[in-house]
């Protein structure tokens, strides 16, 4: 059984989907803890599923590196096989990425390498493209630049707003995340071989 720690910053809709999937006996991964970099609404999902949670508030540390050191120490207490960034709106320090690599994955609401960064949906709309998408990647030292594990196109419809487009991307993101974690757990996806 693959042990997963999920890190969030917000509402945790991807987290919720992963918790629902892992509640099924035939799903080969289990979320062992949920962490956040601030008080996040999504921690309520962990509580609802009886999953322990922790908060390492970014604002409590003098630097990103100091925050990262404490975050890494806390993550390691759970002995995860995989760390999933699920709406964590903060770049992990390189020391954290290096310590956990390659077993850190992230979801992104764009068809990478198109529209990396915090505003992928807004940037796609601003560019006037006809389609964008969702991706699951391995986290590396860059911004949304790691190896792509799964991705799927999502059309941009006439009249789309950032909200309406993001709402159509989210279910695709959730499905890709659940399938990718399953693939890692079963060995279909070999992170070490990337």
From TrEMBL:
Record's keyword terms, sorted: Purine biosynthesis, Transferase
Binding-site residues for N(1)-(5-phospho-beta-D-ribosyl)glycinamide, renumbered to this chain: 12-14
Enzyme Commission code: 2.1.2.2
Keyword Transferase included in the entry's annotation: yes
Active site: 108
Site, as annotated: Raises pKa of active site His: 144
A GO CC term assigned to this protein in UniProt: cytosol
UniProt GO molecular function: phosphoribosylglycinamide formyltransferase activity
Recorded superkingdom: Bacteria
Enzyme class: transferase
Gene3D superfamilies with a match to the protein in the record: Formyl transferase, N-terminal domain
Pathway assignment: Purine metabolism; IMP biosynthesis via de novo pathway; N(2)-formyl-N(1)-(5-phospho-D-ribosyl)glycinamide from N(1)-(5-phospho-D-ribosyl)glycinamide (10-formyl THF route): step 1/1
Pfam families, sorted: Formyl_trans_N (PF00551)
The reaction(s) this protein catalyses: N(1)-(5-phospho-beta-D-ribosyl)glycinamide + (6R)-10-formyltetrahydrofolate = N(2)-formyl-N(1)-(5-phospho-beta-D-ribosyl)glycinamide + (6S)-5,6,7,8-tetrahydrofolate + H(+)
Chain residues that bind (6R)-10-formyltetrahydrofolate: 64, 89-92, 106
Family: Belongs to the GART family.
Function, in words: Catalyzes the transfer of a formyl group from 10-formyltetrahydrofolate to 5-phospho-ribosyl-glycinamide (GAR), producing 5-phospho-ribosyl-N-formylglycinamide (FGAR) and tetrahydrofolate.
The protein's name: Phosphoribosylglycinamide formyltransferase
Native source species: Microcella alkalica
